[in-house]
Amino acid sequence: MLPHKVKKAVTDNPKKLANLIDLVNLPSTLREFVGQSQISRLGCFMRVWSYIKTNNLQDPNNKNVVNCDEKLKSILLGKPQVDLAELPSLIKLHFPKEPK
Amino acid sequence: MGKIPISLRSAIPKTAKMKKPPLVPAASPSPSEKSCHFPKKKLSELAEKTKLPVSPGTHQQKPLFKSPELDDAKKLFHSVISTTRAPLDLRFHNSFLQSYASISTIDNSISLLHHMVKALPSFTPERSTYHILLSQSCRITASSLSPVHQILNLMVNNGFEPNQVTVDIAVRSLCSVGREDDAVELVKELSLKHSKPDTYTYNFLVKCLCKCKALSTVYNFIDEMRSSFDIKPDLVTYTILIDNVCNSKNLREATRLVGILRECGFKPDCFVYNTIMKGYCVLSRGSEAIEVYKKMKEEGVEPDLVTYNTLIFGLSKSGRVTEAKKYLKIMVESGLFPDAVTYTSLMNGMCRKGDALGALGLLAEMEEKGCSPNSCTYNTLLHGLCKGRLLEKGIELYLVMKEGGMKLETASYATFVRALCREGRVADAYEVFDYAVESKSLADVAAYSTLESTLKWLKKAREQGLAV
Known about the structure:
The complex is a heterodimer. Chain A has one domain: MDM2. Chain A has six helices and four strands. By secondary structure, chain A is mainly alpha-helical. Chain B is mainly alpha-helical. Chain B has a domain at about 370-465: Alpha Horseshoe (Serine Threonine Protein Phosphatase 5, Tetratricopeptide repeat). The chains are: A mainly alpha, B mainly alpha. Chain A: It comes from Manihot esculenta (Cassava).
């Protein structure tokens, strides 16, 4: 049922889509990390994920866990370790909530 | 599940094309007319060639036109005719004009043509030359037909009465930019003054109208053409109409149309039956699809590959795999070779029944018989294996797909990501996400939304102790 749901979310809910791809003015912490003042939530996720990959931050014993370096810690609530599963929700915290 | 309906759908235009040859009117067009029937394609190919650096001897410019300015075009024309040693023929002039017309306005193109005639007395514009301008004038998205009339008048004044080819080019060009209403208007006008459309043009227009207009508009057009110009719908027209109503799930209308075509003295052929059968199959009405098959047999119409593919797809879709397998057997016995569509439909049905392993076995069987699976086959299997909780097999299959550079479909991607997350293999899910984005299987947004909502679901499931 999930694909149907997602399809519905994307087509029937332009607001949800906009929430993903609209450029947002970033708070200073995030601005430092991405090196630009505006980015979309999707773009930000891609940046963080590719940062993790290029710097080999996934725990070698458990790929599902990311060992944060200082730079990553600064944007992920200062956690030393982050589960990949919670990455999207942690990034979401920096972005304004969608109006109900 | 899967993309089978689309691949089946693609069978319809093909059949319509295949049907054409026997329907060619006895009086075949003269060779010259034939050669200019599809000038657009030939000329654009030619124009393409002229842009490339060609072998020595045939001197040409690399980019033919840089600006839509008339003066530049004139200069270019002069430089070409003064430097070329090889004699220039009509083809060259036509492609020269075509290249210019494609980036400039109609008025400038007409001026260029006049200029070319004046500068080079050996060049006499042919019907095909005017057709280039006509095609361009139809492609501009103007609100009126006046540029088209301008070209038609130019043609008539130069002794070229618009013929069926002219009508065809105008209609196809107009429809290619969504000006169906203008096409209808022009066809009526040309039928009155110059030439009626031939069956291909007529059917093409009917098909275009079916795609974007209400059924009543299409019927009005058909009635008007019949009453005013004595152009009657033929079997292809009815097939197009039946396909259209079947696609909008109006099977009662389809049945009515079959009655009408019989009244008109036509005998439904394989294509008509296939179309109706597809209508039933899309609605998962397997019994009716079998009825159509039986009717075909009764009427002495030999079922073809599309018939069996449709039937097997329909039966699989409505959960009647055993019967579907039976028809696969009958199909092979009657000398037809099942293709990727046949096998994929059957796999789809088996997966739906929960027999994903059986479907996987069918993959080996089809490859053994020399039928190569396509990306739809793999997606169907991946989806089925993940649904059937055979994740390891699914991963194996995914690796094969990845190696072959195959794209993931929305449904199989989502199911796969979900299955991976359920097993706590989030990093692998991220890897699949990367592949989906990299291979351009899905838009970034769609791929990410799926991943995000799956992870959200995972969090909930973990809280409830349902997932690792």
